[in-house]
Specification:
By secondary structure, this protein is mostly helical. It has 2 domains: 41 residues; 187 residues, Four Helix Bundle (Hemerythrin (Met), subunit A) (Up-down Bundle). It contains 8 helices and no strands.
């Protein structure tokens, strides 16, 4: 094989260096693109809590349909109510509200901001859990056949709807928007990661999406999944 002279060797090394540098730059660009994509996919703490409120809102609609059927004395299986109450207990009360109680409420109190609102919200969390206990107790086919038990079940769902409609609305429009102003940017971002880790720990990957799917199945059982049916016929 013919050996390279000094000039050719330098050209070869230079060309090799260019190839290596180009490869490093390409890899760096790919890594940065992936990081940017990941960042774009991240959900901020208030946005995370607000979309979870969407799950709660859809359960309130399920409760509303159950009450409509009960008032109209239409057929109503207990299973959709039982499944809905279980989602309320596991996803809303034992997860979503615990995030608010452990991460948001103490920070508002420490900052001396919206303290009166936080106190009421906490009391309502506690009241909601007592109401859910009643719903879970009486959301059975046997209870639905008993007039007194049926009334207790209906009352529990009505109380839950009456409280949580204004409860979640006040959090979405007052509490959550104010949260960014009482924590540092670093703490704000870190809490988003903490929320995601807790969700994965309790519900596995894509926990929020799984809950949305569960609620959708309940809506289908009650015939209220098709959004178009709620459009005014005017």
């Amino acid at each position: 094989m013919q050996s390279l002279d000094g000039s050719s060797r330098r050209k070869f090394i230079k060309a090799g260096g260019i190839v290596i540098a180009s490869s490093i730059i390409a890899s760096a660009r790919t890594l940065l693109a992936k990081e940017e994509e990941k960042k774009n996919d991240e959900v901020s703490p208030p946005e995370d809590l607000m979309r979870e409120h969407g799950v709660l809102k859809r359960i309130l609609l399920v409760y509303g349909e159950a009450l409509r059927r009960m008032d109209a004395k239409e057929d109503l299986p207990a299973e959709p109510i039982q499944e809905s109450a279980k989602i309320i207990r596991s996803f809303v009360e034992d997860y979503h509200e615990k995030l608010e109680e452990n991460f948001l409420f103490p920070r508002f109190k420490k900052a001396n901001k919206l303290v009166d609102l936080v106190d009421v919200l906490l009391q309502q969390h506690q009241g909601g859990r007592r109401v859910t206990d009643i719903t879970l107790q009486f959301a059975t086919n046997q209870a639905l056949k008993n007039a007194d038990d049926r009334r207790k079940l209906a009352d529990s769902m009505r109380q839950f709807i009456r409280m949580y409609n204004p409860h979640e609305a006040r959090e979405d429009t007052v509490l959550f928007p104010a949260f960014r102003g009482i924590v540092s940017a670093h703490e704000f971002d870190s809490l988003g990661e903490d929320f995601e880790k807790k969700e994965d720990e309790l519900f596995g990957d894509d926990g929020f999406e799984k809950m949305v799917d569960k609620v959708a199945e309940i809506e289908k059982k009650l015939g209220i999944y098709d959004l178009a049916q709620f459009t005014p016929k005017i």
